[in-house]
Design a protein that fits this description.
Elements: H1 2-12, H2 16-19, H3 23-38, H4 50-71, H5 76-90, E1 95-98, E2 101-104, H6 110-122, H7 128-137, H8 142-161, E3 172-173, E4 176-177, H9 178-188, H10 196-207
Antiparallel strand pairs: 1-2, 3-4
Length: 210
């Protein structure tokens, strides 16, 4: 995933490391969008949209990976080592200290966790124990995250290859959004296959209108 994210960042801007984009600001914005999909307005009836919540987590993961890569100057090996250290800590820690308060993840609801994710992102902190807890609340496992992440990453790359920047890309394929095709494609493939990424791209290319 780190390799894929580095390739995507370079596709958008070859000088992305030097540009030092505020990836954790993007995490904060995506976190707010996740709150909207959850529903928070007490003055109207709202239903939690779990698939959209999961999709927001995938987008957040893109930016977390980008921030880790940026902190390690785009070096994938160093980023992997840093990521594994964060994951090791996430598997043992259930408390987060922030703003002179200690938060127990087991006692927080999903909305509060999303608010905390936004707050930590604003002050440029990555706390994977919090992200992992949000994943659990949104009923998405690490293998599900991987499968959806790879799919979305490949779709983003596909869009770039087919005119997303100059506006010539067609997002609607035969009356349906490309995201809908992507869901069907990744559900039909085995994420454990070494060529999973390539298979997704090929399937997108077959479905794209000529």
């Amino acid at each position: 995933m780190l390799t894929l994210q580095m390739s995507m960042n370079a596709k958008v801007d070859p000088d992305w490391v030097a540009a030092r984009y505020p990836y954790l600001r993007a995490v904060a914005i995506e976190g707010a969008e996740a709150i909207e999909h959850h529903g928070w307005k007490w003055w109207k009836k709202q239903e939690k949209d779990l698939p959209q919540l999961q999709m927001e987590l995938i987008d957040i993961w893109h930016f977390i990976l980008s921030e880790i890569l940026l902190r390690n100057s785009g070096n994938v090996d160093a980023s992997l080592e840093a990521l594994m250290m964060l994951l090791d800590s996430a598997n043992t820690q259930k408390l987060i200290d922030f703003d002179d308060q200690q938060y127990s993840l087991d006692e927080l609801d999903l909305l509060t966790k999303l608010e905390l994710l936004i707050a930590l992102s604003v002050v440029r902190r990555i706390e994977l124990e919090l992200f992992q807890s949000i994943m659990s609340d949104c009923k998405i496992s690490w293998i599900d995250l991987y499968r959806q992440y790879v799919g979305k990453n490949v779709l983003n790359m596909f869009r770039q290859d087919h005119g997303y920047k100059d506006g010539s890309y067609q997002k609607i394929w035969n009356g349906r959004e490309d995201n809908e095709y992507l869901v069907e494609i990744i559900d039909s493939l085995d994420p454990n296959q070494a060529k999973f990424k390539d298979q997704v791209y090929i399937a997108l290319k077959r479905s794209y209108p000529a």
